[in-house]
Amino acid sequence: MQLRYSFRVYPDAAQQAALVRAFGCARVVFNDAVRAREDARKAGQPFPTAAQLSRELITEAKRTAGRSWLGEVSAVVLQQSLRDAEQAYCNFFASLKGTRKGPRTGPPRFKSRKDTRHSIRFTANARWNITPGGRLNLPKVGAVKVKWSRTLPATPTSVTVVKDAAGRYFASFVIDTDPAADQARMPETDRTIGIDLGLTHFAVLSDGTKIDSPRFVRRAEKKLKKAHKELSRRQKGSKNRAKARLKVARAHAGVADARREFHHQLSTKLISENQGIAVEDLSVVGLARTRLAKSVHDAGWSAFISMLEYKAERYGRTLVKIGRFEPTSQTCSTCGAVDGPKPLNVREWTCSACGTLHDRDHNAAINVKTAAGLAVSACGAPVRPGAIPAQREETGSHGFPTGNRAA
C-alpha cells in the first residue's frame, strides 16, 4: 500500500522565494485549466483534452509576454497542476453519477493567492533527489534542509512540498510499503478488543481499560481566545493583522498536531497488541450538529478510526465496524437483556433481568466486541463466523470523508 511520510523542511530566504514562485505558477495553470473548461462548457463545446491544455497553457504560454515567467519553475510542477485540475473534474463527475463514495463534491473552484495552504508536487521525472548530506534537492529551488525524524523504508515515488497556514514547510514523500515486511514487524496475537468511543473518556476497551480524553481544544481555549481577540482588533490589510493571523494559525496548528500525535500513538498501540478490533460506525456528521459539536470535533473520532483502518490493513489485522443502531448501551453484556435507552448522565446502571451492575462505557465496549462476531481460530487468527445483517441506514446521513494518511 502507499503511505505518506512527512518531514519538516527549512528553506532559506532564496529558496522560499523560489517556492513562492512555484506555488504561484501552479495556481495560475490550475486556474487557467478551470477557466478553459468553463468557457468550453458555456459555449456548448466539448472539453479540451489534457494534451490540448498542456500545449496551450504551458508550452505556448511560455512564449508569450504575459506568461513568460512560467519558465522560471520546473515544468513538472505545472504538469502536475494540470493533473490536479483533471482529477478534480473526475471527482466531480463521479460524484454526480453516484460512483464516488462520501458526500457530493462540487466543481473545481479557482484558487486564490490568499489561500492559507499551498502545495506543489515533484514526480520522479523531475529529477529531484536526496543529497548525501541529507538535503532535499529540488529543481530550480535548490538543496533544502530537512529535519529527518525517521528513515524512509523505501525509495519515494514523488514528493510534495507544502506550506501550511502557520507558515511552516513540509516535504511529503509517497512510499510503496512492503506487505511482508510490515506484517513481520507485528507478529500475530490471539487478543481481540472492542472499543467504545466517548467524550467522558476518549475510549473504553472491553478489557476495562479507560483512556482519558486529552481535550486539546479545551486546554488551549484561553490561548486561542486571546489570539482571536488580537486578530479581530487589527486593521484589515495591515502588516499587524498578517502577524496576528499567523499567530492564530500557529496556535491552531499546535492543537491539531497534538491531537494527531495522540491518535497515532493510541492507534499503533491497539493495532500492535490486538489481532482483531471492533468499533462502532458513528455518525460524526450528525453528532457534530448537536450541542456536543465542539467536544465531538475536539475528540476527532473519524481521524482515529481512519488510522485504525489503514494500519489494520497494513499490518494484517482485522478491523470490524458494527452498525450505529446497535443498542450497545442498552443491552446487558451478561444476560443479553435490552434495558431501554438511558440519558447521557447515567454512567452506571443495574440490569433489571439479572441484577448485574454495569459501567455504561465498559458494558458498551463488551457489546461492541460481541456484535462484531470476533472469534479466534485454532491458528490464533481472528475470524468472523457468518455474515451480520446490514443495519438500516440513517435518513439524511452521508459518509464522512477520511483524513490524510500518515505512517
How would you spell out the order of helices and strands?
EHHHEEEEEEHEEEHHHEHHHEEEHEE
The structure class reads: alpha+beta
Helix content: 25-40%
Low-confidence stretches: 375-407
The number of strands is: 16
The rounded Rg comes to 25 Å
Question: Averaged pLDDT, please?
Answer: 89
SS strand fraction: 15-25%
The biggest sheet, with number of strands, parallel, antiparallel or mixed sense and barrel status, is: 7 strands, antiparallel
Q: Could you tell me how far the N terminus lies from the C terminus, measured between alpha carbons in angstroms?
A: 11 Å
Overall shape: elongated
Number of DSSP helical runs: 11
Output the strand order for the largest sheet.
2-6-7-1-5-4-3
Task: Please characterize this protein's 3D structure.
- This protein is α+β, with helices and mostly antiparallel strands.
- It has helices spanning 13-42, 50-59, 75-97, 179-185, 216-219, 221-232, 239-273, 284-287, 293-299, 301-314, 360-372, and strands at 2-10, 118-123, 129-130, 136-138, 142-147, 158-163, 169-176, 192-197, 201-205, 210-212, 276-280, 318-322, 348-350, 357-359, 375-376, 382-383.
- The strands form four sheets. A seven-stranded antiparallel β-sheet has the order 2-6-7-1-5-4-3.
- Strand 6 (158-163) and strand 7 (169-176) form a beta hairpin.
- It is elongated.
- It starts with a strand and ends in a 24-residue tail after the last strand.
